[in-house]
Amino acid sequence: MPNKPKHDKAIKDLRELYRQTRNEIDRVKEDVREEYEGMMIREALRRRGLIESDMAQAIQNALIDGVPSGRIRSEVIKTNVWDRWLFWRDYDIKGDQ
Questions:
Q1: Could you tell me if residue 96 is inside a domain?
Q2: Alpha-carbon distance 23 to 18, whole Å?
Q3: For the segment 38-77, what is each residue's pLDDT rounded down to a tens digit?
Q4: Fewer CB near the last or first residue (10 Å), C or N of the chain?
């Protein structure tokens, strides 16, 4: 192997570059994962807000139509927890919740 010492530096440099490349690829994967997780969470919260707003509007309409709040609490929301009822009763339908 007469050329081995001649190529040692090239091999060493390539190994180091390969190591750096793998580290950068892993870092990019993590950055992209974090970015998309954040986007997914924001989108899920946005959609949840729309659904909750629709439900709150339906509850408010029922109250306006004279449906007793006690029946809504017990038969629809199925809770005796006052905070849960207040969440729906006082929900900001404009989306500022």
A1: no
A2: 9
A3: 999 999 999 999 999 999 999 999 999 999 999 999 999 9
A4: N
Q: Would 41 be classed as within a structural domain?
A: yes
Using the predicted structure, report yes or no on whether residue 27 has a pLDDT greater than 90.
yes
d(CA 73, CA 53): 17
How many other CB atoms are there within 10 angstroms of residue 88's CB atom?
Answer: 19
Query: Quick check: helix, strand or coil at residue 77?
Result: helix
Query: Mean pLDDT, to the nearest integer, of 67-93?
Result: 88
Average pLDDT, integer, range 13-18: 96
Has residue 19 been placed in a domain? yes
Q: Would 77 be classed as within a structural domain?
A: yes
> By 3-state DSSP, what share of the chain in percent is helix, strand and coil, each rounded to 5?
80, 0, 20
Residue that has been written with the tokens 């029946």 in this structure: 71
Residue type, 6: K
